[in-house]
Design goal:
Length: about 100
């Protein structure tokens, strides 16, 4: 389980995820990685079917805004609801959130 990292523009400090080649705020191409551990859940939904997947189990996802202001779509554990403060982490390349 790894802490999620987002990209911060060296020049104007705008934070973004996933990484962009060029900062859409100032045009810089220099980014550093910073930890982004917390987010607030803005909206949740359930993915009930996945094309091409036979053994798919319904999975909760949500739009979350990190403490750095970056909006992400992440996988959520079942008990998470809109308005919750969550911890973000990465597992097998996916970004996930769980209650604090
Ligand atoms: Zn910038």
């Amino acid at each position: 389980m790894d802490i999620l990292q987002v990209y911060k523009c060296v020049k104007c400090s705008k934070e973004t995820f996933p990484q962009k080649l060029i900062c859409n705020n100032c045009g810089s191409i220099d980014f550093i990685m910073i930890n982004s551990e917390h987010a607030i859940v803005e909206e949740t939904s359930i993915i009930r079917h996945m094309l091409g997947s036979k053994d798919w189990k319904p999975r909760k996802i949500g739009s979350v805004r990190t403490n750095k202001g970056v909006l992400l779509t992440v996988g959520l554990s079942d008990e998470v609801v809109s308005g919750d403060k969550i911890i973000l982490f990465q597992k097998d390349g996916a970004i996930l959130g769980r209650k604090e």
